[in-house]
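Q: Convert this sequence to structure tokens.
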Amino acid sequence: MAEGGVGRDEGFSRQAPVQWENVSAETCSVLSWLGYGPEIIQARKDAYRENERLFNAKFGRAATKIITGSKAEGLTSFLESDRDNMLINNRVICLEDGVHAYIYPREITVLRSCNRMSYHGHCRLLLERRGTTIDSKVNNAFCDDGYGREILSSDLFVNNDVWNFINPEGMVRHERAGPSMPETIQGALHTDKVHALRYYCPNILSKWATRPRHWPPPEAVQKVLSLGAFLTPVGFKGSEYQHVEWRVCFNTGEIELVNNLNEIQIKLYVLLKMVKNDVLNPRKKEVTSYTLKNIVLWIAENNHQSLFHERSLLHWLHEGLDALRFALVTRELPYYMIPDRNLMAACELEEAQQRTWISTISEMMNEGPRMILRLSKIRQALIGHPEPFRWYNTRRMGLELLHLIEMNRLVVCTDENWVCDETDVILQALDRRKKEIVREVRLRMIMEGSRVSSSTGVNVRMLM
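A:
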């Protein structure tokens, strides 16, 4: 077995049955029509990268915004899932042991990571040098470590009231969830905001980079190394130091890795997320999209890339389900970037839930190609009429593209006091075209005898 618990390609020499290959190819086509084709994925990625650039150019003096998760990967439509935003403090740097602090200017606050007595992939942060421009958000989060040294508390950092200095109209803030502060705007746009710190850790990254692998290519490995790491304010569950521990993350590096997955690997990831949502339906994040992403990354690393093609998609779904089942049975899944960290270690999986999921996944795997019918979006597409399905999805993706353009135009039209010029002619033109598409879809629904909600309801439903 490979390091990630997902076997290499020795077992793939047996050719898959023709039925599997035909259903695989059809499933690939359906996923493209559902909004998971390479063109719409690239359009989403480009839009969110542009949003980062525009936002940071106008508002990014103290902190740099990074859009992470499924939005940055281009794998969810506009309102389909939460928008994950990281805000990186530009006045703080965290350093691994052996890295010198003198190369950083005096205005930068330098923190030194301490991994002793912390779970793999976590650390504590000792103050090494207080910068001349340290802000209250950081300064107020220091506490004594019991030995007369100042240590940065993750709890004090994330619970700092100073973070909530902007209160746009229509925004509702929710209780803290791990390192994030969830928000909802206008009742529909859900955002998870995480304030984080940049972490320079060449030793951790070099261990990842020097592993033997089929994937990613050397140039992508070098890009991941250059992007570095971050520390988010959340400790390991159950640790006595949880309130002062920080978790090591590689958000930008992982976005680069997902960008290097081929079309079939991306669609495998999408299918596994559908399994999570439609079949497993976890209630307490016992299995997350992040769990499934790590399974896909291990599969990609451990197998020749030529084996991933449209007629092999269901084979790889079978392999992905097998890896997920193994993780549930053993309660072990090595983190792709730091294999010593077990992603299942604190997942709060109850024994009854574990047995049910293992049984359900085994049943799926024994169903052969029919397992794909357990996924609601795929099932509806396969049993529906091709023409209405394609007509609706063409307009749905067109509406999403308009919203992505509008998202970035709103940043351009917003001043430094967060006041937007809604008289902008481009914003008005985008709004007119969006309304035209919604009216067209709503009219067809009425003509076909469908149950129709308001135009606002149709608009929201099309973006989910």
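The chain has three domains: 1-36+261-383, 82-250, 386-462.
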